[in-house]
Structures are given as C-alpha cells and as structure tokens.
C-alpha cells in the first residue's frame, strides 16, 4: 500500500512524497522530512488514503489507536480516490484525492453560545478534547514512523522492480505506434480538456517543456526527420516546396519520386530486418524506396477526406491479425489542429474544439486497445510536428521596400514566410545581395525591417543544421516570430496562424508523450525530434541506419529491459 498524503484535521500535519527521493530527517523551518515524507505543521491536518479499503492494510501495531481516533464522535472521515505514482498498473488521472478528517466542535464550546452555569463540567470537556487531540497527533507521528519503516524494505524492492521495463502480457513482441497531430503546439494539452491525452501523460513519459522541432519548423521536413533521424539538409526535404537547383524541377508535398527522399526511414529499416510496418498518411511513407514498396495492405496514400475514426479503426484492425502478421511499427496522422490554426491562429475556440477532437480519437484508440487487452503492451509515441503563432497584416515586411538598395524579383524568391529563401541567378553574388539587403533593413527606413535577419546559409547559426544541401538556397532570412514577408504591398488583409520560424522560438515547440512498457512515469528534458528514430529502433531491438541522433539518447529516456 502507498500513501500519497496524510491529514488529521485540526492540528496535525500534511505530507507529500517527494519524487521518490528518500533521506534522513533534516529540519526545515516548520517542516520535517523523514524518508521522503514531508511533515508540514498547519492549522489543519489531513490523512489521504488511496481508497476506503486502505484502513485494513495499515500496520496492526498502529491500527487500534488510529481507528479509535477516527471513530470518536468529534471526527468525520470521508474517502475519495487519487492516482498514486508508482504502481505498474494503469490508473485514471482524472480522479482526485480528498480524504479528510474534519474536526466538529460541540455548540457548547461556541464563544457566541450562552455561558454554561456548570463551569467545572465545561472545563473537563475542554481538557478531554485537548487530550483526545494530543492522542490523535501522537497517532499521526506513530503512523508516519511505523508505516515508512515497515514499508522501507518492500518499497525499495518495489522501486527496483519499477526501474525496469514491464514484460509483455499478451503481445509476443514489442509494437510501436507513432501518432502525429499536425500543428499541436505545446500547451494546447493544458488549455483544453484532454482526459485521454492526460491519461497517457500521467502513466508515461512527457518532454517537460515540449519537443524541439528541426529547422525549418514545417510539416514535411519535420515528419521525415522523425522517420529518418536526419536533419533536413541530410534527408533532402528542406522545405514543403522547393526547386532542384540542377534541374529546376519542383518538389511539392505530392512528389513521390524516390530521388527527393534521402536517408533510410523507419519503415524501410523495419523491412530490412524482415519485420512488418504499417503507415497511415505519414509524409514520405508512400514513396517506394529501397526495400519498402508501400504494400497496399499496410500503406495508405494520403486522403484528407478519410474520417479520423476510420483511421483509428484501421490501425486497431491490425491487432486482430494473427500474431506473426501484426506490424511491429505503425504510424497514424491527423491534420488537426493545424488546419484550424492556419485560419484562426493559436488562440481561438476552433483550436479548442480541434484539440478536443484529437483527444477523442486518442480515447477511441485506448478503448480499442483495452478491449483487446493489449493497451499496456503497445508503445504509443504521440507527437505534433510544430507549434503555431498568430500572425496579422500589421506585422509584414515588404521586399519592395528594399528597392533603394536592391531589387529582388519574384523569380529569385523560393519561399517567403516564415522562411525567406532567395536564390539569385548566375551573375549575382549571394554575398553582395545579402550585404545590400542588410544595409536596407538596418537603415530604419524599411517598415518592420529590424524583424528580418538575412544570412548566407553557411553563416546561419550552426544549431540550425541548415547549410549542407545544395537544395537549400544560398540566402536565408530568419523572420521574427509572428511577422511575415511579402514581395509588395497589397490591399488584402490577413490574420491567422503560421509556423516555420526559428526552432529556438518557444511557440514552435510541440508535444512528446511516450507510453508503454519501457517508458517510466515522469518527465524528461526537452529534446530534438531527430532522437526519435533511435528511440524506436531501441524499443524494437533492431539496428538502425546512421543518423543525426545520439545513440546514447534512448538510455536516458527508456527503462532498461528485464
């Protein structure tokens, strides 16, 4: 039995376990710490139990005095439930704890009541109440000392048991389901009621302040970076749209030719190891590349009209196949809340409803897995691909305003916002173009000019890893959060949302939640999404392809195997 906190109302102490850290008592002003138990003196004290049946589990040596105190006429005991971190079984994070012992005074002790003619009797009652309270206080300390000392050995062995991954109960081999919710900015899970997502968080691992996307923080570069563990400069998808500098061919989000897609994505890695993978709308998965031929049974070509419910049900149906036919790696993709974010920005009721819809899909998935009795066996990794920030027409920078220093024709510009990319034609030195643009932007004569910084790509901050590919134009402009670049002024007005900014901008962060046998309960420091490739191959116990992630990263996040 684990106790989350204690409270004995009217003088005693409230306590809370401190992240599993145990230490000998050390006095702090008003607080005593005894083996992970914080005893805080307050006017009111309560004991909180996991459930009403816990009393029977208390150590026999202290059961009698506690029960006597609880059942005296001046105390009232009520029980509710609360999830306790530690046990390996799943628990519902929505339940809250409030078990409390309340002190009820007799009306004869009310100062506003008429003074009793029998003062000796009143004095005796008052002394009796004080003595009873002292007995209860003593019982509280006895409980604290005896419970923790009696459970220290068992809790130590239990903690040791929980420091390794849980064994599979029904599935014969590990299965990883990778879910992407497009445009799910970190923080959306707190602004909207998301009980199902929070169930995964409460019983799994969460990136503490979000997952850091690769630069540029755009949908296709991001998703393919997760799939390959490579930065965009190395896997080739350097933007959602771009031109091949050698052939002039255009890449779009509908380009299936393998020549664009470099590196080895997870589904190809799985097939190389003789394993099965199933992909549902993950960017790049439709490309027939290497050993991956996008099998009709397990590879879905993108179709935005497919209801979210059908996508979840299709993934669940894979678990109904014979054990040897179940794919060990699956992907699932939802367009929301990105679709709404483009139109209304990050703060709007439409975003709230979109996030709630994603949460319902996660609930549908959990229900389906639980009905098959495999929820605790399946590893679920839920991510977004980027954040979102509001933009409006008053935050615009016009390239035409630079005409006094340099004219930039539309055909030079391969993307405007939020990533400005310029490829001058032969005869124009990129360094000269950058110098003239900087002169104009820093002159104070270009509206909002100070919010655009232009670089030769090789001079970009190295943390962006955005220089090694010839597909990247030679001139890159980093735009301040919420601002946009356009070629010329128009009468049109636009307010909405955007992304693609510097990945150091916090609003670009998204979520990472890992739930499954190898994920401990708690939070880990934020990390870049290129680490997920090695995380998946580690869970599946296969050797991955060379990538930009750290081979040591999975050890810092996953529980060791038994």
UniProtKB/TrEMBL annotation:
One term of GO molecular function: hydrolase activity
First and last residue of the signal peptide: none
CDD domains attached to this UniProt entry: Enpp
Keyword Transmembrane helix: yes
The keyword Transmembrane helix appears for this protein: yes
A GO cellular-component term linked to this record: vacuole
Keywords: Membrane, Transmembrane, Transmembrane helix
Listed name of the protein: Venom phosphodiesterase 2-like
Species: Durio zibethinus
């Amino acid at each position: 039995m684990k106790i989350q906190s204690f409270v004995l109302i009217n003088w005693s102490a409230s306590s809370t376990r401190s992240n599993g850290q145990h230490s000998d008592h050390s006095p702090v002003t008003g607080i005593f710490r005894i083996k992970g138990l914080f005893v805080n003196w307050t006017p009111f004290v309560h004991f909180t139990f996991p459930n009403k049946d816990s009393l029977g589990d208390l150590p026999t040596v202290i059961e009698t005095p506690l029960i006597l105190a609880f059942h005296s006429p001046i105390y009232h005991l009520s029980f509710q439930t609360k999830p306790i971190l530690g046990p390996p079984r799943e628990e519902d994070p929505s339940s809250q704890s409030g078990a409390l012992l309340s002190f009820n005074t007799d009306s004869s002790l009310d100062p506003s009541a008429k003074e009793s003619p029998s003062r000796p009797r009143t004095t005796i009652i008052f002394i009796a109440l004080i003595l009873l309270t002292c007995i209860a206080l003593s019982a509280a300390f006895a409980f604290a000392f005896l419970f923790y000392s009696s459970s220290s050995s068992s809790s130590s062995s239990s903690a040791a048991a929980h420091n390794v991954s849980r064994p599979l109960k029904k599935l014969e081999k590990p299965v990883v389901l990778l879910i992407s919710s497009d445009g799910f900015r970190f923080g959306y899970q707190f602004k909207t009621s998301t009980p199902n997502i929070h169930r995964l968080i409460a019983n799994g691992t969460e990136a503490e302040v979000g997952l850091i996307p690769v630069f540029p923080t755009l949908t296709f570069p991001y998703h393919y970076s997760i799939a390959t563990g490579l930065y965009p400069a190395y896997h080739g998808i350097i933007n959602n749209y771009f031109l091949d500098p050698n052939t002039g061919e255009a890449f779009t989000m509908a380009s299936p030719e393998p020549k664009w897609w470099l590196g080895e994505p997870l589904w190809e890695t799985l097939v190389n190891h003789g394993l099965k993978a199933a992909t549902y709308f993950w960017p790049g998965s439709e490309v027939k590349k290497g050993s991956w031929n996008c099998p009709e049974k397990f590879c879905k070509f993108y179709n935005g009209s497919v209801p979210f419910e059908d996508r979840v049900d299709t993934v669940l149906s894979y678990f109904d196949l014979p054990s040897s036919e179940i794919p060990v790696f699956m992907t699932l993709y939802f367009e929301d809340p990105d679709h709404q974010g483009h139109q209304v920005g990050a703060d709007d009721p439409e975003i709230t409803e979109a996030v709630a819809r994603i949460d319902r899909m996660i609930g549908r998935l959990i229900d389906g897995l639980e009905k098959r009795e495999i929820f605790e066996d399946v590893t679920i990794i839920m991510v977004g691909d980027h954040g979102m920030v509001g933009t409006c027409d008053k935050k615009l920078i016009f390239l035409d305003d630079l005409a006094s220093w340099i004219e930039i024709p539309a055909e030079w510009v391969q993307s405007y916002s939020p990533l400005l990319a310029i490829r001058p034609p032969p005869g124009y030195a990129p360094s000269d173009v950058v110098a003239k643009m900087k002169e104009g932007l820093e002159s104070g004569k270009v509206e909002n000019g100070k919010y655009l910084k232009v670089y030769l790509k090789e001079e970009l901050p190295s943390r962006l890893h955005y220089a090694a590919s010839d597909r990247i134009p030679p001139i890159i402009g980093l735009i301040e959060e919420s601002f946009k670049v356009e070629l010329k002024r128009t009468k049109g007005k636009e307010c909405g949302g955007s992304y693609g900014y510097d990945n150091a901008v916090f609003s670009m962060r998204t979520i990472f939640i890992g739930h499954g046998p190898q994920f401990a309960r708690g939070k880990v420091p934020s990390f870049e999404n290129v680490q997920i490739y090695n995380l998946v191959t580690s869970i599946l116990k296969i050797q991955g392809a060379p990538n930009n992630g750290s081979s040591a990263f999975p050890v810092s996040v996953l529980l060791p195997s038994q």
